[in-house]
Amino acid sequence: MLLNASVGDRRRQISRAVTPGRDCGPRMECMDSPSRTNRRRWQFGLGTLFLVFTLVAIGAAWCGWQLGLVHERQKLSAYIVAHGGSVYSGLELWGEAGTRPVSWFRRWLGDEAVGQIYLPPPEFTEGDFARVKHAFPEANVFPPKSGRSS
Length: 150
What we know:
The protein has six helices and three strands; from the N terminus they run H-H-H-E-H-H-E-H-E. It is mainly α. Strand 2 (about 115-120), helix 6 (about 125-135) and strand 3 (about 140) form a beta-alpha-beta unit.
């Protein structure tokens, strides 16, 4: 009899043999079996996957952008000090009240608020002044004087 039985009949016979005493329909599993409920709980759609992936990618891009800003500011600050300039943090000049703080995330990455920057004339040009002003918008940047005073 098993040789003439269809594939569906064989599946029904196997499922009834595995779960004796349960009244499940011929094509559905028992709803109270733990494998069915656990498997169903963690399903999600392809649209949800794309949405989560997009949000994670946007967050990672923003973190990378902030990290790039912090590294640029640190390198530029070290370059200014190495070439005779001065970089003063806001805490050195005015304390907590006078500074425009950077965000907590950038502080966590190692950035700090800068109060004033002095650029000595022979080493820095007006182009350098624009770059420094763009990198440190919270700071008072004193540009190099092109003419000499007597």
